[in-house]
Design a protein that fits this description.
Number of strands: 5
Strand content: 25-35%
Distance between the termini: 19 Å
Strand order of the largest sheet: 1-2-3
Structural class: alpha+beta
Order of helices and strands: EEHHHEHHEE
Largest sheet: 3 strands, antiparallel
Helix content: 25-40%
Number of helices: 5
């Protein structure tokens, strides 16, 4: 079966104002609309880096017990968690290979290694 949703664990977690920490979540695969529609948002026009915030708020469909994932939710993540989600997004959407070949600089032997970031599923 084709997997469209992927579980993740944030390195630090989303901390709500009441002190509740949320680390476990689910991200769905992106659609063309997920990548195109945010380009029409005025916040992206003023600051192109904001594209990532809107994009992640569309594809992160669960984050602990948070009722609704909004751009504000993503804005309030710790930087390491934002970076983790960006890498996770790239990996599940095919922008980063699951495995890659590397060469040992000492012996020149070629190995295949897993390229998944640590701290997640």
């Amino acid at each position: 079966m084709f997997q469209t949703e992927h579980a993740f664990t944030l390195p630090k977690g989303y901390l709500e104002a009441d002190g509740t920490l949320h680390r476990e979540g689910i991200m769905r695969l992106a659609t063309a609309a997920d990548e195109i529609l945010p380009l029409q948002d005025q916040r992206v026009a003023k600051n192109p880096a904001y594209l990532l915030i809107i994009l992640l708020s569309r594809v992160v469909i669960k984050l602990g017990g948070v009722k609704q994932i909004t751009p504000k939710t993503i804005e309030d993540l710790f930087t390491c968690d934002l970076n983790y989600l960006q890498e996770f997004y790239n990996r599940i959407n095919g922008y980063v290979p699951d495995h890659m070949q590397v060469e040992c600089p000492g012996c020149r032997k070629v190995f295949e290694v897993e390229s998944r970031p640590q701290g997640g599923s």
